[in-house]
From TrEMBL:
Family named by the database record: Belongs to the AB hydrolase superfamily.
UniProt keyword annotations, A-Z: Disulfide bond, Hydrolase, Periplasm, Secreted, Serine esterase, Signal
Upper taxonomic lineage: Bacteria, Bacillati, Actinomycetota, Actinomycetes, Streptosporangiales
Superkingdom assignment: Bacteria
Region of interest (Disordered), ranges: 29-55
Record's keyword annotation contains Amino-acid biosynthesis: no
GO molecular function, one term: hydrolase activity
PANTHER family recorded: DIENELACTONE HYDROLASE DOMAIN-CONTAINING PROTEIN-RELATED, POLYKETIDE TRANSFERASE AF380
Residues annotated as signal peptide: 1-29
Chief location of this protein within or outside the cell: periplasm
Protein name as annotated: Poly(ethylene terephthalate) hydrolase
Ranges of residues in domain PET hydrolase/cutinase-like: 28-287
Gene3D superfamilies from the UniProt entry: alpha/beta hydrolase
Pfam families given in the database record: PETase
Organism whose genome encodes this protein: Nonomuraea corallina
């Protein structure tokens, strides 16, 4: 069991022992990192979550990655938040994914969308840059950003080679709480070393990183002992993350809330498998431990 999952379950058990929880009040069954109101389909499918956000540019002069943009909740009353670094794909800039920044941040996360050192960086380089961006957030970002971050609750994501980079980062840093590769591309097919809870999202009609040779074998290679999910979007091309995609965002936020925040309120949006005409296939290690 992941250490933070254990903490969440201990908190729930303690509350049950004290009679603080009843079947009529499932929203109380939460761990210490719960942020925001009880989740609903409409909340997760909206263009923004419950938190207002601010954003700042990140200079290209930072060390280890090419700068970018950081988004964070304005609220300081609920404690610190988890943080996620996201990489664009081959030849792309952060602007191609920028809709994700405020959307994820508005659910209670600090988000850094990175620019890569060059547009042609390969997945292993993008993985290192994602980790450098997380280190910058925790150690060197402006105090208004740094003070909002819980350094023990960090995650990575990315599109295409950036998605392949998020697999690299998860493999290199098992202390991460979650990874969400989007239409990931990588020449490495075996990720048996990954212990980080990983949700892979692929597109059914992707011809650049076909799911049969990328997303699916990536998912299958991650050990069954690691929490993992595979979501395939019906009819989606390789470029589905570059425009607003409600199904992707809903699942991504739910995964981050469940594993970065250990927020058990989001478990029903992942287990049992979500049903939607937008979903071609869904696999998961349900029930999550």
């Amino acid at each position: 069991m992941h250490p933070r999952n254990a903490i969440a379950r201990i908190a729930v058990a303690a509350a049950l022992a004290c009679g603080a929880l009843t079947l009529a009040q499932p929203a109380q069954a939460a761990g210490p990192y719960e942020r925001g109101p009880n989740p609903t389909d409409s909340l997760l499918e909206a263009s923004r979550g419950p938190f207002s956000t601010s954003e700042q540019s990140v200079s290209s002069l930072v060390s280890g990655f090419g700068g970018g943009r950081v988004y964070y909740p304005n609220d300081t009353s609920q404690g610190t938040f988890g943080a996620i670094a996201i990489s664009p794909g081959y030849t792309a800039s952060w602007s191609t994914l920028s809709w994700l920044g405020p959307r994820i941040a508005s659910h209670g996360f600090v988000v850094i969308g990175i620019e890569t050192n060059t547009r042609y960086d390969q997945p292993d380089s993008r993985g290192r840059q994602l980790l450098a961006a997380l280190d910058w957030l925790v150690e060197d970002s402006p105090s208004a950003v740094r003070g909002r971050i819980d350094p023990s609750r960090l995650a990575v994501a990315g599109h295409s080679m950036g998605g392949g980079g998020s697999l690299e980062a998860a493999d290199d840093r098992p202390s991460l709480q979650a990874a969400v590769p989007l239409a990931p591309w990588n020449l490495t097919k075996n990720w048996s070393g990954i212990r980080v809870p990983t949700m892979i999202i692929g597109g059914e009609t992707d011809s650049i990183a076909p799911v049969g040779t990328h997303s699916q074998p990536f998912y299958e290679s991650i050990p069954a002992s690691s929490e993992k999910a595979y979501l395939e979007l019906n009819g989606a091309s390789h470029f589905f993350p570059q425009t607003t995609n409600t199904t992707m965002a809903k699942s991504m936020v739910s995964w981050l809330k469940r594993f970065v925040d250990d927020d058990l309120r989001y478990e029903p949006f992942l287990c049992p498998a979500p049903r939607s005409s937008a979903i071609e296939e869904y696999r998961d290690t349900c029930p999550h431990s």
